[in-house]
Design a protein that fits this description.
heterodimer; A: 105 residues; mainly alpha; Helix Hairpins; elongated; B: 171 residues; Four Helix Bundle (Hemerythrin (Met), subunit A)
Chain lengths: 105, 171
């Protein structure tokens, strides 16, 4: 644990990050920007796992494992999403949300 | 000292996260996200999980951000500004986010966490590796293998999807 920093302050920061990500997720009109916001949300959740592990159960490592899995899944998700976006750009020459009217591949 | 570093890191995180979701230039927004990810890696260093910090720096700051920058350079015109949502919508979503954050924070601050005191022992990478590859109780060998299959499938799928229709149509 960090000397002099309580768990409440860290959870406050991660909550702020999470809701900033949600704000970006809803207000952005561009697929890549939406993906950026999703990365913010995933990161704040990973920090939460680590912090709760470190502060409440310091003898275990479960939170670390879950954070590693979250990072791996986020990498896979980003690679797939960007490949879909590039393919979509070939089809409709735009990556705006309103231009993607069909899910047909 | 650690307290001051924590406050600086959290300030960097929140400020650059806000800048990342509100900037109208997409490349700048990606670079702001890079700053947020580096601050999170610093936070992992601070909380004494060096392995997670290394993963965060290599996978996120090294891999995903480069992927984002590549796709932005392939797809976008750098100078063109993103169109934003209307002002009313932004205010509405901002208010909703603030209300949600307030609700979550009130629940968090009202909950009495029982913090363990004797946590001076630092975590070694060896423990993480042994736990992740153990068969016994609390071992994580099955999710580890599943995640490797998932990464392989995602890699093949990304190649096939990004190649487009040329793979399927034979001329």
């Amino acid at each position: 644990m960090i000397q002099g920093v309580s768990i409440y302050e860290i959870l406050t920061v991660t909550t702020l990050l999470f809701f900033i990500g949600i704000y970006g997720f809803i207000t952005r009109k561009n697929l890549i920007s939406i993906l950026l916001s999703v990365e913010l949300i995933l990161n704040s959740v990973a920090i939460n796992f680590v912090v709760i592990n470190k502060y409440l159960y310091p003898d275990m490592l479960q939170g670390v494992y879950f954070s590693v899995f979250i990072i791996a899944v986020a990498a896979a998700e980003t690679a797939l999403a960007i490949s879909i976006i590039i393919n979509l750009y070939r089809l409709v020459t735009s990556v705006e949300v309103k231009a993607t009217e069909t899910m047909k591949f | 000292m650690e307290q001051i570093i924590f406050y600086i890191l959290s300030l960097i995180m929140v400020v650059f996260a806000i800048a990342s979701v509100t900037s109208r230039m997409i490349l700048r927004s990606v670079v702001y996200l890079l700053f947020v990810l580096c601050a999170i890696a610093g936070f992992y260093f601070l909380i004494d999980y060096n392995y997670l910090a290394a993963i965060q720096l290599t996978v996120y700051a090294g891999g995903i951000i480069v992927l984002f920058i590549f796709s932005v350079l392939l797809i976008h015109h750098i100078e063109s500004k993103l169109d934003v949502a209307s002002l009313g919508r932004r205010i509405l979503v901002g208010l909703a986010s603030l209300v949600g954050a307030g609700l979550t924070l009130s629940v968090i601050w009202a909950h009495p966490f029982i913090v363990a005191e004797n946590s001076a022992r630092s975590t070694e990478v060896r423990d993480i590796g042994l736990g992740m590859l153990s068969y016994g109780d609390g071992g994580y060998i099955l999710p580890f293998e599943v995640i490797s299959i998932l990464l392989l499938a995602a890699m093949i799928g990304a190649i096939i999807v990004a190649k487009g229709t040329r793979l399927t149509i034979k001329d």
